[in-house]
Amino acid sequence: MADMSTDTSATAPVAHAPSLGIRDVAELSGLSQDTLRWYEKEGLLPTVPRRPDGRRAYSERDVAMVVMLAKLRDSDMPTEDMREFARLVAGGAATHGRRLDLLQRHRRRIEERQAALNDALRALDDKAAHYRHLISEQLDCDGDPVSAEIAVQQRKGMPA
User: Fold this and answer.
1) Among residues 110, 45, 112, 32, which one has the least CA distance to residue 79?
2) Contact predicate 140/134, CB 8 Å
3) CA of 45: how far to CAs of 40, 48, 95, 109, 144, in Å?
């Protein structure tokens, strides 16, 4: 990933650099315009330069940072860690090691959560298989046969 260090001229009006407005960045990132404004206000994004008409002008670097922050948020990174990541990015190349450490710690949290979700999914699959067996054999939860009327009701809502 390219270094997304913040330029100190970020508050200066954008002259000739190609840029995107907040609506375009919201569509690209999947974040709302309000969320983008909040990210900027909370320091998750550097101050986005403004066009002469006062509208935000996101550079490619800004957009890359927004997309990365959206991925971090989607992966349940705590806001404070996202803020720290943004501070480190603003610190330039000297912070690469600390950024890597932050991302690796978050990766471990994701792996732990993924393992827990996989366990939950296995339990769900086992329970679904149990119910499919009970329905196919027309049994109740104790393994006793059910009436024809109950057997019809058991099959309601089953996928085709």
Assistant:
1) 45
2) yes
3) 5, 8, 16, 23, 62
Closest CA to 22 of 63, 53, 61, 70: 63
pTM for this structure?
0.74
Q: What is the dihedral of CA 53, 58, 59, 61, to 10 degrees?
A: 160
For residue 77, the 8-state DSSP code is: -
Pick the CATH number of 8-90 from 3.30.70.360, 1.10.3720.10, 1.10.1660.10, 2.40.160.60: 1.10.1660.10
Domain limits, CATH 1.10.1660.10, in the chain: 8-90
Average of per-residue pLDDT across 129-150: 95
Cβ neighbour number for residue 39 with a 10 Å cutoff = 23
